[in-house]
Amino acid sequence: MPKYVFIETLGCQMNVLDSELVAASLVRAGYELVDSPRKADTILFNTCSVRQHAEDKVYSALGRLKHVKERNPEKIIGVLGCMAQKDRELVFRRAPHVDLVVGPGQLGQLPRLLEQIAAGEGPKLEVSLDRKGASRPLVEQSFAHFDPARDVRPLGGRAQAMVRVMFGCDKFCTYCIVPRVRGPEQNRPAAEIEAEVRQLADQGCLEVTLLGQTVNSYRDASQGRTVRLSDLLERLAAIEGIRRLRFVTNYPRHMTDDLLQAVRDLPKVCPYLHVPAQSGSNRVLQRMKRGYTVEFYREMLHRVREMVPAATVTSDFIVGFCGETEEDFQQTVDLVREGRFKNSFIFKYSPRPGTFSAERYADDVPEPVKRRRNNELLAIQNAISAEENAPLLGQTVEVLVEGPSKVSRKPSRQGEINQLTGRTACDRIVVFDGDDSLIGRIVPVEITQTSAFTLFGSVLDRPKP
Ligand code: SAH
Ligand code: SF4
Ligand code: F3S
């Protein structure tokens, strides 16, 4: 009898990757993945703690499952990932019907833990050590990598994959929970990454996105000579079959010339750089402990534009951080106007218990002010996004086709014309008509209409199979 598992994923790409790997490990253990919690006998949430909102969503979803669990006590409900690591026992207290709490460093144990629960052993809690609670080597050990071999592909023959190059973060920006829930920065050996990408290429993968919280500080010195991200990209670019390489997220201070040269000189490396600025005010940046000034960020941006003129740059901003004045905010507006980012993710500051800013600074920007600043910055960015996309009208771009677009999410019948969506190398979303056989291919699309978020176009000719 197959066991049916449903996984809901919140949070960043790191979590999306973890969920894929968890799904694969469960398929290997005899589970079948289902697309709705109703069909599942095991319901897992892979959670995020980066903002309060992400946590609230999980707790309310858990609340809704209370009656389901009462009626079907044999159903297993599990909380995985960053909020599991942050809240630990608190999850059981807030949602007593939860069977399982597993941190990001224990995901490899899931098949065993589920088996033990099914055998009647009762609830299980597996999390890593607190960063302050033990010596660094012990804490590192407790945040075990979960990067098993990619021999099962539960999500179907996709042409894209994410590969972790780095686990955790050591930056401790004052607002951020990630270093606590993901543990100390640990780099994967380059040889291991290379082997994984080779395996993915053999399975038909065309595009690999390398993941790390500060991906451009990647360093592997385990084999003598230090391998930097630029060196790693060069090695991966040599792998046959791989057509595109991306990497996220970049830390502004580590945007070194060797990396920009790699982006410029290696045709497979996408000219797309996500380099979050967070704020345009030095006073705020300092309180955030970001480790750079806005002048440094501008100079970095200037260097990117000089060395890789074709590159698109994207950013993240937090508005309403503790003590942010109207003047500070205006400096962020100035940076967004000048930065010409392809797009920016803009967040309202959300105090996270256990972080420096939550403990030391007052969350003193009122919610309506945060909201207003968020909307204002978003409107400015969106206008820029539209302007930056406009010149693509009439151009032909190479699109890696990802699947049906949002409007035609329903699966079409074989060969039927559908609306598809994909991405350019510089991470622009392109929507166009085509049949499902194009999914997973790189096709030329002529752009016929542009907007702030999307380019629309038509496929020029069908690629040969
Ligand atoms: N490692 C990446 C991003 C990690 S979290 C980096 O350093 O850029 C993704 C984004 O969430 C951050 O860039 C930041 O803009 C936002 N973020 C993190 N903590 C936050 C908080 N407490 N409140 C609001 N936004 C936050
Ligand atoms: Fe968080 Fe800063 Fe680390 Fe990014 S670099 S994960 S924002 S602490
Ligand atoms: Fe969230 Fe964890 Fe990512 S806190 S943003 S899922 S690393």
Helices and strands, with pairings:
Layout lengths: L2 E7 L3 H16 L2 E3 L8 E6 L4 H13 L1 H6 L4 E6 H6 L1 H6 L5 E3 L7 H9 L5 E3 L9 H7 L17 E5 L1 E2 L10 H5 L3 E2 L2 H13 L4 E5 L7 E2 L6 E2 H9 L6 E5 L8 H9 L6 E3 L7 H7 L5 H14 L4 E8 L6 H14 L4 E5 L7 H5 L6 H23 L6 E9 L12 E7 L5 E7 L6 E9 L3 E6 L6
Parallel strand pairs: 1-2, 1-3, 3-4, 4-5, 5-6, 7-10, 10-13, 14-15, 15-16, 19-21
Antiparallel strand pairs: 8-9, 11-12, 17-18, 17-20, 18-19, 20-21
Helix pairs in contact: 10-11, 14-16
The site of S-adenosyl-L-homocysteine has 17 residues, from strand 15.
Description:
- With 465 residues, this protein is an alpha/beta fold.
- It is 35% helix and 23% strand.
- It has helices spanning 13-28, 52-64, 66-71, 82-87, 89-94, 110-118, 136-142, 178-182, 190-202, 229-237, 257-265, 282-288, 294-307, 326-339, 356-360, 367-389; strands spanning 3-9, 31-33, 42-47, 76-81, 100-102, 124-126, 160-164, 166-167, 186-187, 207-211, 219-220, 227-228, 244-248, 272-274, 312-319, 344-348, 396-404, 417-423, 429-435, 442-450, 454-459.
- The strands form 6 sheets. The chain has a 6-stranded parallel sheet with strand order 2-1-3-4-5-6, sandwiched between helices.
- A hairpin with a 6-residue loop joins strand 11 and strand 12 (227-228).
- Helix 10 runs parallel beside helix 11 and helix 14 runs parallel beside helix 16.
- The chain is globular and about 60 Å long.
- It binds S-adenosyl-L-homocysteine, iron/sulfur cluster (SF4) and FE3-S4 cluster.
- FE3-S4 cluster (F3S) is lined by residues 11-12, 14-15, 48-50, 82, 177-178, 181-182.
- Residues 169, 171-173, 176, 178-179, 213-214, 251 line the site of iron/sulfur cluster.
